[in-house]
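Notes to self after the call with IL:
- keep both proteins in one doc
- input above output, always
- annotate only the second one for now

Protein 1:
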Amino acid sequence: MLVDLTVKEFLNKVAGSEPVPGGGSIAALNGAIASALAAMVANLTVGKKGYEAHEELMQRISETALQEGKTFIADIDRDSEAYDSVFACFKMPKATDEEKAARSAAIQEATKFAALVPMQVARNAYGLMTVIADVARLGNRNAVTDACVAMMSARSAVLGALMNVRINLGSLKDKEFVAGLRAEADELERLACTKEKELLDEINRELSV
């Protein structure tokens, strides 16, 4: 499994000549990184003088972020497995009309799944952005820039995952399915970019004082 590799091993595998792990797995990795940073800032806040009012919130944020991180970690492999499933369908026999029909149907179903995996990554990463905004605004001020990096990583997870959604949608014949996911992807991208900009603008103004 990809998640069992060392950082160096994983990066070497990404840099190799195989198509996976690729952008989808990296998007999930960005989500995992964002989760870890959010948990770190929350944990740096718990028990600190001056933050007693937010103690319970920070504990919940830490727990939530760590749980989300586990999901993103699983998605690193899940995305690569989805790609492999599509590729396997292309290797199916196509000598007869029946085989061609079965192969085409299998490709369509596998491609749908390959679009849904990164879409869920994008949804989860966008949800995490709200948690990150809370920890950035209410957490330990000495770690506020760490929270901002978490926000940027989460936004990268959203946008990267959505790119993988869109490339898969281009191969699908189910117009209703495609239209629904495309509309959701466009809205998620808009919301993620807006949420990131709002927080970074706010913190940059704070840091420039």
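Protein 2 (the one to annotate):
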Amino acid sequence: MRKYITICLASLSLNAIAQTDSTDNFDYSKFGDAEGVKRYATQKVANQSPQRIFSLGYEYQGGFTMPGVKLGPLLPAFQDFQVEQISTIKAQANIPVISTNKIIWQMGLNYSSSKFNIANASINSFTSGINANAMTSAGINTILFKPLNEKNYLILQSSADFNGVFSSLKTINHQSLTISGTAIYGWKTSEKNMVGLGISRTYRAGSVLHIPVLLWNKTFNDKWGMELLLPARGNLRYNFSTTNMLQLGFELEGNQYWMNLPNSQNGAVFIQRGELKPRIMWERKISEFVWLSAQAGLRYNWRFDVMNEYNGKRDNQRYFSSNLGNPLYFNISINLVSP
């Protein structure tokens, strides 16, 4: 009991000292930087667009043509269709696992479901399939930012996605799985400029590619900046303020989707879908950590090849290819961002 009373009295004394000894006017300038403390590069530049922890969005694509759809595996006949619209729900979460000045590691989940509305779709097995069942992608990803010192850093990213036109959860299979990854080595020359070079395995153009990548985030002044991860996306940024910004640029999206098609060569086909989206995007803070994002632009068809083989590339592996029309689109999302 005596020890307990002593501890309580000591705690009250420390609390009183803390309340009476204000540090509001304390002069820290007499102290220099701690010697021997290693500094590390940070993952952002000044005024950069906020990093999203959670995002929920809706995208609408207007009507366009879908020409040259094959009528059957043994028939040399093709037919043109009209897509009235595509409606897409998108969700993404990026959860920090470790966040220190020495390492940042995040795990993420992503989901996207595109519902096609095709006129007279029932007269063809392919169009009736994607009209009845959404083109869905769901997966997991991880990203590691490792600063090596004050100027150099590494970024490692990988993802695994199940993509397909699934009639039920039971139809999800290993052939709908795609694996992607990126490795970047970079230099942060100042708080306003960071550059990185690397290599990526990606399905963004619809089929698997192994390509070099360029990361370049630069803030020119309080108003202007750019955010590039080429060839995946690039934006020129204008900051009305730190919580209100406009971006003009593009993004390349896509993946390979498995689809059950009983009368095809192997009972299934693989839709290699790639889209280039020139766009204008507005982002604004609406509360403490909640931002609104709205974008509009053109959905340009990069690739819509339907293959008989997983990761098919040769002409003799192609079921058919369609040169889709290029509609306007808009996208709106609500985002929870990091501080």
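Annotation: Residues 151 and 190 are 8 Å apart (CA to CA). The chain has one domain: 52-337.
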